[in-house]
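INFO  loader      accepted 1 record
INFO  loader      residues=199
INFO  predictor   begin
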Amino acid sequence: WTAVYFLITDRSMKQKLSLFIFLLLLAMCGATAQNMPTQSISLRLGVPVGFTYKVYTGKKEGFEFGIGGASPYWASHYYINSFNNFSKYKNYKYIDHSVQSTIYLQGRYLKDFQIPTSGMVGQLNWYCGAGAVLKIARLEYTYTNIDAVPPTQRDQHTDIDFGPEAILGMEYWLEDTPFSFYGEGSAMIELFDRIGGKA
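INFO  predictor   done
INFO  writer      dumping tokens
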């Protein structure tokens, strides 16, 4: 799955363009001129950055599955707090960390509600839903252990976060096209590694 997300960074421009056209054609095949899609593929910007695939089970509801990643500089304080909470690093002094890779997997159920508009070209909806998020990050901690030689040590750590997610967003479908634009916010309750919340 990681290779799918990082594909565009390791291929030539011609291959990037081919991938984009392929995804675009898939998205167009899943929608009709009446903006009543049966499936769709979208590019997600934000955290995570990646792709989502949505299957519509009815006119106003569907399931969405996503894969993506995040910048190695995102949530820096979260990883520092994690270091201070892990028993394996007890009595060690944090120095630094570097995130080597991050992957997000998401599964959601979403329900749409049409917003009545007059004189607007296209269709405006708001939607809400619930789902689950799995995040796997590979990182390296640098810390001080006064009982070791040398005292500065490094340790590879895999950070796994999982928990339920609540979603609220808005989507605008262009008139007589299979394209839409959307913006959303979500909040996740982390069940492990640590109990907490993220938005």
